Amino acid sequence: MRATSRQLSVVACLFLSGTAAAEEPMSAIDWLSKSVTTPSALPRGSAAVGRPAPNEPPVTKGAAARPITTTTLDRINLDGLGLVPAGKSGLPSDLWGPAPPAEIVTAIRGAATDTVPAIQALLTTLMMTEADPPQGPDAQGTVFLARVDKLLDMGALDPALEMLSLPATPQPEVFRRWFDVALLLGEEDHACAQMRKTPQIAPTFPARIFCVARGGDWNAAALSLRTGEALGQIDPEMAALLSRFLDPDLYEDEPPLPPPARMSPLILRLLEAIGEPQPTVTLPVAFANADLRPSTGWKSRIEAAERLARTGALDPNALLGLYTEQEPAASGGVWDRVRAWQEFDTALNGGHVNEVALALPLVWDQLAGVELEVPFATLYGERLAALDLSGDAGEIAFRVGLLSPAYEAIAKARTQAGPEEAFLAGLAQGRPVPPAPGQLGTAIVQGFAPNPEMPEDLLRLLQDKRTGEAILRAADDVTNGARGDLRAVTSGLALLRKVGLEATARRAALELMLLERRG
Asked: Which pLDDT does position 25 carry in this prediction?
């Protein structure tokens, strides 16, 4: 494809979309492309939109990058599909019980993702768990799609793509999401190849034009564009974008297109192709995956990785790799974090304890400012604990250890320096002992009491065996507790422990105490 060098619309897009994005993030159902349509929605005479032209060359480049694995699932309800068996996830197989699917969908869509990392991890596991499908007349895969959308909302595209690859027979709403995820992961050739293999999933005109052009038949793509416009199947904004995509040289002296009213993965890819790449920082976090490709600048890749790491969608080792990829190019902002991380990592790997003690407070302060303490702790918590640091560095190292997967062992080994550390060590072992530091600590103690009080409606969910909804409610209670609702902290932690999620309850409580998370 040919592309111009115009990038002026980046600043305009950032200015116009930043405020709205900060107020209320869009959910997946708001930003997904309308990339497929059901056959009944196609205009008369356009059924061939979903089928390759007779002389159309096959798409082969990159088509094997991520093969779709399928399983024979004749007459199996989509809602029962998952990546992790219930036994391995720590959740019951009758997770949803007799709850009406519509109510489960409402609970899933309403679950907050801007919360402490332990609750984010729980939500991810809950969405991926294979469980008995809910029963009811509207049990038609709506819960499956809601679970996938929640993964998309968290930026967890890889597990979402695996989920979407489970059905043996693609369905329009499943394929729509699969196509968009492939676009964000830079696998557009594979997405187009799969679209050609599934003519029963009729692509819309914009999606077909994009794929035909990617296959090299620019004349057929231009013909499809004119046909789509004549049939009223392409809106003016999309038509203008596709025209530049098909022949950007005709618009070389034209000003950049105005920022799109509604961004989607397909629009993002088209704008990038015509030399008008858009910043993803103001877009839903799933779009940050598009900036992880090697072709993106280092700074943009780091910032995208930070966004994804905050939601638990990126492995901490990937963040480590980006932070240590090369020398920082400047100072301030992200470069200060990179420099602080590299100095700490070098000191630790070199076994220089005194240098570690000097570097740790600086890197910890830098990462706390962007809420990346837990990924850092996951990587370094155990190693720091083994150094037996003293003073301020020792106190920070203890807190880093409590935020790591080895929190309980580190708490047992620590000689506590004062009542606050004693409380935290007890909490890590499931036995927080008063005096608690502040009202939040008191609410946490009550959540770990032998017989804590819980709201009647929460208990009723458990009695009705609607465990999944109860867990979602508890997750929201912990989230609301981070914003100051201390009674919710108690009920949320108590319910997590009651359903056997003791480790999640402990880690969430430690994060409430150690992190500044106020929503």
From this structure: 63
Alpha helices in 129-264 (DSSP H): 142-153, 157-164, 172-184, 188-197, 205-214, 218-230, 236-246
**Token pair of 160 as six digits:** 């979402």
State pLDDT tens for residues 254-292.
999 998 989 999 999 999 999 999 999 999 999 999 999
- Nearest partner of 168 among 74, 293, 103, 35, judged by Cα: 74
> What one-character DSSP code corresponds to residue 25?
P
Residues of the chain with pLDDT under 50: 1-23, 40-74, 518-519
**Gap between the Cα atoms of 451 and 440, Å rounded:** 19
Nearest-angstrom CA–CA distance, 177 and 28: 9
Please write the tens of the pLDDT for every residue from 435-460: 889 999 999 999 999 988 889 999 99
Number of helices (H), then strands (E), belonging to the chain: the values are 26, 4
d(CA 335, CA 439): 37
Provide the pLDDT for residue 75: 54
- Chain CA centroid to CA 311, Å: 6
DSSP state of 327: -
Peptide bond into 85 cis (omega under 30): no
| DSSP track, 27-83 | PHHHHS---EE-GGGSPTT-GGGGS--TTPPPP-TTTTSSPPP----TT--GGG--S
The whole-angstrom separation of Cα 257 and Cα 264 is 16
Matching residue, tokens 């231009």? 222
The 3 state secondary structure assigned to 153-189 is HCCCHHHHHHHHCCCCCCCHHHHHHHHHHHHHCCCHH
Distances (CA, A) of 71 to 151, 408, 445: 21, 40, 47
Find out whether 466 and 96 touch, Cβ atoms under 8 Å.
yes
Residue 130 DSSP one-character state? E
Give the global pTM.
Answer: 0.87
- Please report the pLDDT score of residue 252 as a whole number: 87
Contact 433, 423 (CB under 8 A): yes
CA dist list (Å): 307 to 250, 287, 385: 37, 10, 27
Q: What's the mean pLDDT when you consider all of the chain?
A: 86
Scored b (16 or more CB within 10 A) or e, 355-372 reads: ebbebbbbbbebbeeebb
* Length of the chain as a residue count: 519
| Chain CA centroid to CA 517, Å | 18
* Helix/strand/coil for 84: strand
